[in-house]
Specification:
- It is a single chain.
- The chain has 251 residues and is mainly β.
- The chain binds fe (ii) ion.
- Fe (ii) ion (FE2) binds next to loops.
């Protein structure tokens, strides 16, 4: 076990001064992202091994919290993304869907912005077609819920380091198939926050720009882990097909 390096994180919201990591760290480089970039050829000036983002998986503040996370089948991760332009495109995560679990449903996921400013691309499907695309504007303290069965990617639009926490089911499995086959999400977000259609999608609905709507049961001031510590039962929807409606009913 090692202590998670939180140097430079200024938010008091983050219970992180003491976050402990199991050292399950994943680094994604410019080269890793090439298959999903708007214009990979425009990144030739960048070192292909340059890290774009790092995911620290399975973090916790203390053993009590770790037990409660495990008992509830959940995991807390932190992603750090550097302020970087990939040619004309902002730094972003590769983008993925969650594999369906026991039938048609796939796990939702909940994110919090610890530092910086993000846009979340969220796309929904009917079969293989994309039927809605949203870009969620999320600033420090905002919480973003990714509903079940949606593709999603996170974008750093600021000149600051972006640090984002997420709570997710331990059973959740990511799949990169759609984003790989179509060379990215439904739209690319390029300099000046302009949206560019990804022509590898057959037909595209117009993208909506929406604000983050933090669920009321999250204590925005103290963040996901503190909210989870206080009321872990409110996060059961992350593992329960029928739980999302119940969670919203509590608002
Ligand atoms: Fe995800």
């Amino acid at each position: 076990m090692i202590a998670f390096n939180t140097e430079g994180i200024r938010s008091k919201r983050f219970e992180s001064a003491n976050l402990i990591s199991t050292n399950r760290k994943v680094v994604r480089t410019v080269k890793d992202l090439e298959p999903v970039l708007y214009d990979a050829s425009s990144c030739k000036g960048l070192d292909s091994e340059l890290p774009v983002y790092t995911i620290h998986r399975d973090l916790y503040s203390d053993n009590d919290q770790r037990s409660t996370l495990l008992d509830n089948g959940l995991r807390y991760d932190v992603t750090e993304m550097f302020p970087l332009m990939l040619g004309e495109e902002y730094a972003k995560t590769f983008g993925h869907d969650h594999l369906s679990w026991q039938g048609a449903w796939s796990h939702p996921e909940i994110f919090e912005i610890i530092q910086g400013e993000a846009r979340f691309l969220i796309q929904t499907y009917r079969g293989e077609d994309v039927v809605s695309v949203s870009f969620v504007v999320a600033r420090e303290g905002d919480v973003v819920l990714i509903p079940p069965s949606c593709g999603h990617s996170m974008i750093n639009v600021s000149s600051d380091r972006l640090i984002v926490g997420n709570l997710i089911s331990q059973d959740c499995v990511q799949t990169y198939r759609r984003f790989t086959e179509r060379k990215g999400g439904a739209y690319f977000l390029v300099r000046g926050e302009k949206l560019v259609e990804n022509r590898n999608y057959r037909s595209l609905p117009e993208a909506r720009i929406v604000g983050a709507e933090s669920p009321e049961f999250i204590e925005k001031k103290s963040g996901l882990l503190a909210s989870f510590r206080r009321r872990p039962e409110l996060f059961k929807f992350l593992n329960d097909q029928n739980g999302l409606l119940e969670a919203h009913a509590l608002e």
